[in-house]
Amino acid sequence: MFQIISDSSCDFSPAEAKAHHIEIVPFYITFDQTAHLKEGIDISKEAYFQRLKAEKNLFPQTSQPSPQDYIDAYTPHLDAGKDILSLTISSKVSGSYTSAVLAADMLKEEYPDRTILVMDSLNGSIGQGLILTEIIKMRDKGYSLAETAALAGEVIKTAKIYFTLDSLEYLRRGGRVGPTTALVGGLLGLRPVLHLVDGTVAQLDSVRGSKRVMQLMEEGIAAALEGETQHVTLAIGHILREEDAATFKANLEAALHMTITNPVTEVGVTIGTHAGPGALVVAYCKKYETFVR
Amino acid sequence: MNTWFLVAQILGVITICFEFASYQIKDKSKYFLCTGIGSLFWTSMFVSIGLATGIGTQLSLIIGATYSTIRNLVFWRIFSKNTPQSKEFGLNFLLVMILIALVAGVITVMNMPAQVRWMHILALIMAVSFVICQYLPGVHYVRIAVVVYAFAIILTQTPLNILYGDFRWNVMGILIELAKIASVVVFYARYRSEPKKPHLQFAKPSAL
Fold first, then answer.
1. What predicted TM-score, i.e. pTM, was given to this entire model?
2. A56 and A17 share a domain?
3. Inter-chain contact A159–B206, Cβ cutoff 8 Å?
């Protein structure tokens, strides 16, 4: 059996990680460039977003795990004679993948008989979480590292993530939209819908009003997954918007005639810093079984 | 009949074709390109009428049409690029355009006879609303706004003005506005018969 390691962008809680015997390499958060806090260890997601919401002029920054962080995570498992499958957030939005690859290269000489496979999820947050869940299922079913990596590669190609923001303020703070766009968008009540295309953040559309955007997302997802529901796994995430996320989940279940088994998750800092409190996230991908011949 | 006047009629017909076509297009950047080219012919039409009757008589219309052409073509570039930077520039440009339209419109309205001022105030409000709706997301705002705007324009160019002694009968101007209204009617007739697609097009979970 191999060891699964992911960066904290997968949005697994420490309890979930422990339950599934996976290891999480945390991202760093800094509010003032001095203290670098480890996501999920030194600061909880909720505490982070509450602070982001409360302090108007706060510009927190996130930074990827260093190669040394990955070396520290990989080494004990290599010492224990295990191979490693390491999943990271999209390499187009963070340097986490590069750090993981560097760490794997550095450990090659020391552990020539062991394999470290680093996989770019081309996704993030709950999208990466869904891919990770499929990898866990494969490992638990007894698939080898090579088989798991091959099937996970297929799953990654099908994974989609969409998120709508309650405000353009956090995109403005992060420099992703200009001040006029944020101001006018706010006055018009525009809610952008963003997604990852080939691992890069892009805007799908803008819709006026929170309720309307939820309704249109439900309709859009129902159309996209029509006839596919038994082959698909789906997850919902949010940032300080638990009630809406629960309603969204119930409406999607009704529209898709399926039960969403993945728990509603609070989204982490990697996407959350740009999306901000009030974001609603949905991700889906095909189950690995679809690709088993 | 003056040759330039005949040229103006031909340019007017070409404008009608482009304006009609533009409201059949859902894609924002293609819409702006089509209506932008239409505005270019529209401007040329006023220049030709000016060459036939004296540029002074058409100057305000030439300026107005040039303003529309520049606005549409700049919006076309902004929506084709579709980057956060282009959108930010587009919004700033939109605000400047609204400001220019308001200043020019207020000056025009103040110079109108008191009896027909309400008509021109209505046209001004609709012009500004139309520009905002052009920029708003989706296919509906711009079409609803253009119909109301077209009616407001027609009102300023119909015999209703006779009552106030300020009658300006511009057949081609009215035909251009009627073409926009007809195009929106045709668009919605087609739209109703199309199979309903969700507003947000989410990708199927198939391999890339």
1. 0.81
2. yes
3. no
